[in-house]
């Protein structure tokens, strides 16, 4: 399944270290990760030395590195889960894969350990089909094809820019749902990859993703911070916002987004009822965010991911800014991110 | 999983008898079908008495019945696979399920026989979610839920009007693909149901479907006949056309379309290379059909499925009629179908 056309040195695995000791995490992933270069970003809010076992090829970055490269004023953007975006900024590889540090490899229905990296690379290096839905899922998977009625002119597909993997065990629910259903676990292994159709929006989770940095890198951005968000996934929506930015960019530039395989196994972490007490505003804001992105139309002048992000930011400021100041901050942050992206590319 | 709110007498199973002896087909399905009423339509082109084993609750209809009810001029519409539409016309039930007579029950990954009827009814009687994609598939399946970022205002979903099941073994390919890959079989059991997002078109297959007759019955229509089509699925696109009509109607009226489970097992039938010699025009026509339906917009005046079909027919005639006379015939047939539908409903 792994495409021989992708070399190991075209891939960076970016890890956000939310806790300093990565020993057990990296040992679990050793068989899968050790061939690739890792970029490890230490959450600037945490203390303690990073612990990384031997035998990996990696670079680490800490708060001091962040401040040195982007200046202290922007450092806050890269706290918590968002520290990974600093890795996206520094990578020079074609493909970036990022997996949360509370996840370990999943097993498929036959009990065989999933190679999440190979599956992500397969998703990204085979075409996506956003313009017509194939009922037998990804026609580029082994043993699959296009079903009767699928126009031949659409069978070449388009470049896949984003691969969204899924999770077994602890599902990626919001804090209220997790608190209401504390026993709910995702046990269903769905053996499929599919392209999310053009113009359909979906809630991307940053837990287990991969993307083509050359196509859409600047759209993978750390811009949507809730006032009271913490260090648990269910307290954030930064990745959901980012995913809709990328989807709008892909729809506009003619790239595809896939979702489904690979799965990772999410370990237990945190207490959802505790999170609820923070008056999590994510639920309320999504009611505004989703219709906004669904109706977002970019102009023909937007020819690169950078252009697209700037257009989206302007629309965010104009249409959402009056609803809540969090949107104005997000718009400003998106513009800053593109400036930073261009500056880092120029410098290196 | 079966919804207790659906009674057995709210369901008709419609079978198109393409061959007169249904003994082995019905014996395979006995455990699943025998609780329900069957409507069996004999393909008006075939000879020989229908053979139906005892113990089923059914009505049969033959060419004479078709001619009596709709007159001889329209009878041709109901030949081959299309004879099932005569059953759709006569049914008075809320739900209709139709499975091709070369299919037998499939087994899931644990080797347990699938109850396709229960799964279809479950799909139709639980809400669909066409306005935002849920990455963990149908949130109304057991053990599933909405993922983080899914707007709460969209979590009630909408009525599901169409459930498209899939097939193991012989996949539903077009004649050229089947001829090119004679060994290709679908062996991947994907344990998922999902709502096809609003405004995304998909190639419905009539092999294994269910729908809510009260919501969209008039849109399940026999209108798109190829000049040289035969008795093999890969020689037809009538169901693909019909599926896009229904999808446009659902998108307009705010209903959902689900695809995925249940699977059926398709037995081998026919020779694709023989079919290719008929200069099958389905491939060429789909290049026009798909963009047409993708850009189809209905007016606010279309408030019922009948209204929608009439509007679609007018657009077919105007936009596609000049390309090929098959489209003009399809448009006329759609209008006739709605007239027939109304006449039968008034009469009974």
TrEMBL record, chains A, B:
Any one Gene Ontology cellular component term annotated for this protein: Golgi apparatus
Keywords, alphabetical: Cell wall biogenesis/degradation, Glycoprotein, Golgi apparatus
Domain of life: Eukaryota
GO molecular function per UniProt: UDP-arabinopyranose mutase activity
Carbohydrate attachment residues: 148
Keyword Glycoprotein: yes
One GO-annotated biological process of the protein: UDP-L-arabinose metabolic process
Record-marked site positions (Required for activity): 148, 155
Keyword hit for Membrane: no
EC number: 5.4.99.30
Compartments, record wording: Golgi apparatus
Reaction(s) the record says it catalyses: UDP-beta-L-arabinofuranose = UDP-beta-L-arabinopyranose
Annotated InterPro entries: RGP (IPR004901), RGP_fam (IPR037595)
Biological function: Probable UDP-L-arabinose mutase involved in the biosynthesis of cell wall non-cellulosic polysaccharides.
Sequence similarity: Belongs to the RGP family.
Name by which UniProt lists this protein: UDP-arabinopyranose mutase
Organism, scientific name: Solanum lycopersicum (Tomato)
């Amino acid at each position: 399944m792994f495409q021989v056309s992708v070399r190991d040195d075209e891939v960076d695995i970016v890890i956000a270290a939310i806790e300093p000791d990565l020993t057990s995490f990296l040992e679990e992933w050793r068989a899968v990760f050790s061939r690739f270069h890792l970029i490890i970003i230490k959450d600037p809010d945490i203390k303690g030395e990073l612990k990384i076992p031997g035998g990996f090829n990696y670079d680490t970055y800490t708060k001091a590195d962040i401040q040195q490269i982007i200046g202290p004023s922007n450092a806050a953007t890269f706290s918590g889960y968002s520290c990974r975006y600093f890795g996206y900024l520094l990578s020079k590889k074609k493909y970036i894969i990022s997996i949360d540090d509370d996840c370990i490899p999943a097993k498929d229905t036959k009990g065989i350990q999933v190679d999440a990296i190979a599956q992500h690379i397969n998703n990204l290096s085979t075409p996506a089909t956003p313009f017509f839905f194939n009922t037998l899922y990804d026609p580029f998977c082994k043993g699959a094809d296009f079903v009767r009625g699928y126009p031949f002119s659409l069978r070449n597909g388009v470049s896949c820019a984003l691969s969204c993997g899924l999770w077994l065990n602890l599902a990626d629910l919001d804090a209220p749902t997790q608190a209401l259903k504390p026993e709910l676990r995702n046990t269903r292994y769905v053996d499929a990859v599919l392209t999310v159709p053009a113009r359909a929006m979906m809630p991307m989770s940053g837990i287990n993703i991969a993307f083509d940095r050359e196509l859409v890198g600047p759209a993978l951005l750390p811009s949507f911070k809730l006032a009271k968000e913490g260090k648990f996934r269910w307290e954030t929506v930064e990745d959901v916002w980012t995913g809709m930015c990328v989807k709008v960019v892909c729809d506009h530039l003619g790239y595809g987004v896939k979702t489904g395989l690979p799965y990772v196994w999410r370990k237990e972490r945190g207490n959802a009822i505790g999170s609820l007490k923070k008056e999590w505003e994510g639920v309320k804001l999504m009611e505004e965010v989703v219709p906004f992105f669904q109706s977002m139309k970019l102009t023909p002048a937007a020819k690169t991911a950078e252009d697209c992000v700037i257009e989206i930011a302007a629309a965010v400021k104009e249409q959402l800014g009056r609803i809540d100041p969090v949107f104005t901050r997000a718009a400003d942050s998106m513009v800053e991110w593109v400036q930073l992206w261009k500056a880092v590319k120029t410098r290196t």
